[in-house]
Specification:
With 160 residues, the chain is mainly alpha-helical. It has two domains: 1-38, no CATH class; 40-159, no CATH class. 47% of the residues lie in helices and 7% in strands. It has eight helices and two strands. The chain has helices at residues 9-18, 21-31, 33-37, 40-43, 47-54, 70-87, 140-149, 151-159, and strands spanning 103-107, 116-121. A hairpin with an 8-residue loop joins strand 1 (103-107) and strand 2.
Length: 160
Amino acid sequence: MKKELVINEKNAKFFYKMASDELKKELENSFGKAFFQSDITDRVKSLKDAFKVTGRPETPSFYDLPEDLRPFFQAIYNVVVINEALNEGFRGNIYNEDEARYYPWFRPSGSPSSFRFSGAICDCSFASAGTGSRLCLKNDNIASYAGKQFTEEYRKMLES
């Protein structure tokens, strides 16, 4: 009896990293060799791409929240999914003070049209809380890419 294994793109990437040579060949036959060699920034250019890479649903209902809070939670959800896709499985350990965590930094100048990416930052938080591990990115290049490519999604999150 032959059985078939169905695997989504996110899990395929995850298993590929630790797979035997034999399993890597099978995964490459199914997804294509380029899929495993391409950079995440080549595969995640839009919010829709981030949903595809993570396998997350595009529009959770948030119906059990008060209506005025739904846009805020939707905006946060979108940024979390973007970060999850760009991090490719990395999730910062908030208890490890030696682990650098990066996030895009923005500069608003008085109006929504002037909201822009300013740079990627990794800094000590001292007494401030900084950001949660789901909002951190694995390195400054990915944080810069996220800030430039997904400025509108971050703006929606920060202004909600």
